[in-house]
Structure formats: C-alpha cells, structure tokens
Hints:
Helix 1 (9-22) packs across helix 2 (33-43). The chain is mainly alpha-helical. The chain is built from 6 helices and 2 strands. The two termini are 29 Å apart.
Amino acid sequence: MELISTASFDDFAKWYLDREMRKGNELSFPPTPDKRLARMFEKHEGKMQSWFPHCTWTIIKISSMDEFLNLLVLDSKWTRAENLVVNDEPRILRNAVDRAIRFNYFVEELHGREKHHEYYKKRLM
C-alpha cells in the first residue's frame, strides 16, 4: 500500500457524490463543502459515521489483491442483516465476499438487494 497524499472529508464527499452521479443515483452536485456534508448525511447516511468529518483522511494506492481484500467493510444494519458482517470475524472485504458467496447474496434476488444486483450485473457485461 502506497500513501499518495493527505485528503479531507470533503475530498471523500466529492469523490463519493461524483461516483453516485456516474451511477445515476445523484441528479446534482452540491457546490460547497457544507452542502456536500449535508447531502452525505441526508442521502447516504448508510455510508457515514458522525466522526468522519473530523478524521484524518489519506489517499492510497492499493498494490495487491491481498491489500484490497483486507480493506474494512461497512458496518451497518443492512450488512449485518445480510450476514456480510458478523461479530465473530474481522470486518474485512475478504470475509464479506466469502459470506456473500456462501449465503448466495448475488444469486438470490431478495428485497433490498436490487441496487447491488443491478450494479453487479452491469459489471459482468
């Protein structure tokens, strides 16, 4: 893993909201840091923690699949309800992927999974 630069919460918000616009989930881009912060907490609260704006942020380059699979996974009501995150194992991507495969997350089209299934299918094409 290579440190590229320091960053800010607003850098994260800009990146995230821009990504959501590319996916068609955002119709407009908030013009100021305060409006981006408000948008993140209003529309994307599942991706947020109250302490995020006060953290030290960095941009890194992931150099290997192992580094990628050791990234932290969101701890939320839905990741726990889907059994992607559980108390008895580390909350890393490798474990969430293993659990998603084991519990047919991308096979069974249950309520609440629609956006993930749609996004997944687009990436397969």
